[in-house]
What does this fold into?
Amino acid sequence: MVYLIITVRIISVMVLFLFLILKTGRRKIAELPVYDFLSIIVIGSVIGADIAEPNIPHLPTLFAVILIVTLQYLVSCLLINNKKIARKITFGPTVIIQNGQFIKSNMKRLKYSIENVLMALREKDIFDLNEVEYAIVEGSGNISVLKRSQFLPLTLADMKLKPDTKGLSVPLIIDGKVHDSNLQQLQRDRSWLASQLDQAGIHDFSEVFYADCNMEGRLYISKILQAKNFNDDFTL
It folds into this structure.
């Protein structure tokens, strides 16, 4: 009976928590503001106690989860609408390198050492500080870097070239099933698709695991292949 109670509690809490998270928005864990992160820790403690001790009443736990998530949502709305409060209870972006020079006071306030900064820059493939114009520590703790103009990669805009717009690729076949509605969007039909597959040596739609087509009319085709041990072909 105890195991049944624990199972019901886990399912009910997870369903409720998932519903509340979907309603309040989603973000990466690394990008959560401080208050959101604290809310997750508190919710974890509440749920953990509820699951570990079946004698604790379950409904108060569900109420606590709803209350915590509601407070988190209200605080998030407050931070969006009031930047002055947001700056006081969250970590805003902080410049640690400006015009190629370290800002020691900001690094000290953030408890960032030079070693921390150098490691973060190496993770962005920057091994020479002469390449850095600005480095900013974001609220998530990640570092954003603006390189000096002479170290930026050459773009088509720099060459005064206008790139063609590729657009999105549209799935035409998924697991052997043809998506006729997508063919119609491309103003194509099954006869056209069959002729394209014939050129690739494929004579039946069921042989195709996945196929799509971009706005230029270029197809990508993947057959249904049998499972195979990679080491049969390559020695690793």
